[in-house]
Design goal:
four-stranded antiparallel β-sheet; about 0% helix; about 50% strand
Length: about 170
């Protein structure tokens, strides 16, 4: 979906058909600001039209919208899960120079995927192997905390440390 010249929201699914052949389990919009928009005058201020999708093909796909063709295209396929990816969530970046996506799956794995700058490769970091299916991941509004809900009816909160490791900071029993 995007606003047209007339100020009306229009939707284009061109390119998204059969995004995940067995099924798509979640979709998350990228932050509207290009990474680095608040810290660099050289970064475009135009809204970013990107999203990520998770699927039953064990992948997370990163998509961008091409204005010229009015078509969505896959920028990158993120692989690391060994079973259905149940959820993916794009972290708010508040204009900081990095993209981050969290994903979780039926395999019990939770990953953080980071991209240092637009166009560069995505790197994965395993946050935790929960040993049970993980249903949802959700970022705090600042993108500094990640909430994870697992098959044991437990919600945990995670924070990334300066050395890029993730630590559990809280647990809520259901």
């Amino acid at each position: 979906m995007f606003p047209s010249e007339r100020g009306v929201w229009e939707a284009s699914k061109k390119g998204l058909e059969r995004a995940h052949p067995i099924g798509c389990t979640s979709v998350s919009w990228a932050p509207a600001a290009e990474p680095g928009a608040l810290v660099s005058p050289h970064v475009s201020q135009a809204p970013v039209k990107r999203l990520c999708s998770a699927g039953c093909d064990n992948t997370v796909k990163v998509w961008s919208f091409n204005e010229a063709t009015k078509e969505w295209k896959v920028d990158q396929v993120l692989e690391g899960h060994t079973d259905w990816v149940r959820d993916a969530a794009w972290a708010p970046n508040i204009g900081l120079p990095m993209n981050t996506i969290a994903s979780c799956g039926q395999d019990g794995l939770v990953f953080a995927w980071t991209q240092a700058e637009a166009g560069s490769p995505w790197k994965s970091r395993l946050i935790q192997d929960f040993k049970v299916p993980v249903w949802r991941v959700s970022w705090s509004v600042t993108g500094s905390l990640l909430a994870v809900s697992d098959g044991n009816n437990v919600v945990t909160l995670w924070k990334e440390q300066l050395d890029e490791t993730w630590v559990q900071v809280s647990t809520v029993q259901g």
